[in-house]
Design goal:
By secondary structure, the protein is α/β, with parallel strands linked by helices. It is built from nine helices and nine strands. It has two domains: 96 residues, Oxidized Rhodanese, domain 1 (3-Layer(aba) Sandwich); 97 residues, Glutaredoxin. Helix content is 32%, strand content 18%. The termini are far apart.
């Protein structure tokens, strides 16, 4: 039985990138086998609301964006394996870097996060008092109607906790206004649209897609510039 060590907290530890990598990136199948072993700490580094809406059973929870995140993270025992995950693997990778730079030897990160875990049809636990995020929720059938409408459609898959997503929001709003009547610009909240995200096999956000005549003609993962998107827009107009 996995020992459960629960940490709760509620902005951010310093974000930095380690040149070396002494933790292990693992896929969902490997992660599942690892956490079945006796001992160890299984830790979800998302927000409490994200955690409540779907987490791996027996996980502890510590918010990566909490001011005291690093301090609390380093309370974990050094003599046991640490298994980390978040939504896409980004926050948990940063947490893994903090641990290895402070002498932790057996650190494992679920590489593409719980989004990939769910894509593989592995189970998650949902708390009874969870309050699902409904903002900019979209179902697969609804998106299909937009794509097949005959008008070009640009979709921004984002998440409220995602820094790059928040950075690009003003740009997305500006594009929506500038291309009004020519291209449908949609925002889709990946947290609120889990069924759609799973059906489209989306592993990370931000994820941008431009559809024309029912086909994806441009895709982009991560940050990009307005000029790059407008170049794709103008190609089809």
């Amino acid at each position: 039985m996995l020992r459960k060590i629960v940490y709760t907290a509620a902005l951010a530890a310093s974000v930095f990138v380690s040149k070396g990598q002494d933790f292990k990136q693992v896929n969902p199948a490997e992660f599942q086998q690892l956490i079945k072993k006796p001992g160890g700490v299984l830790l979800d580094v998302r927000t409490q609301n994200e955690f409540k809406n779907g987490h791996i059973a027996n996980s502890g929870q510590l918010n990566y964006y909490a001011l005291d995140f690093k301090k609390r993270l380093l309370l974990l025992p050094k003599n046991e394996p640490v298994y980390l995950y978040c939504n896409t693997g980004w926050r948990s990778e940063k947490a893994a870097q903090i641990l290895v730079e402070n002498g932790y030897k057996n650190v494992y990160n679920l590489e593409h996060g719980i989004m990939d875990w769910e894509l593989q049809n592995l189970l998650v636990a949902v708390d009874p008092d969870a309050e699902p995020d409904k903002n900019n929720k979209m179902e697969y059938e609804e998106l299909t109607r937009y794509i097949e409408s005959g008008k070009p459609v640009f979709v921004d898959f984002y998440a409220p906790w995602c820094g790059p997503c928040r950075t690009m929001m003003p740009m997305i709003d500006e594009l929506k206004s500038k291309y009004y009547g020519k291209i449908n610009v949609l925002k889709v909240n990946a947290d609120a649209s889990k069924k759609l995200v799973k059906e489209m096999k989306i592993q990370s956000v931000p994820y941008l897609v431009l559809y024309n005549d029912g086909e994806a003609v441009y895709t982009q993962k991560g940050l990009t510039s307005p000029s790059e998107i407008e170049k794709a827009f103008n190609k089809i107009l």
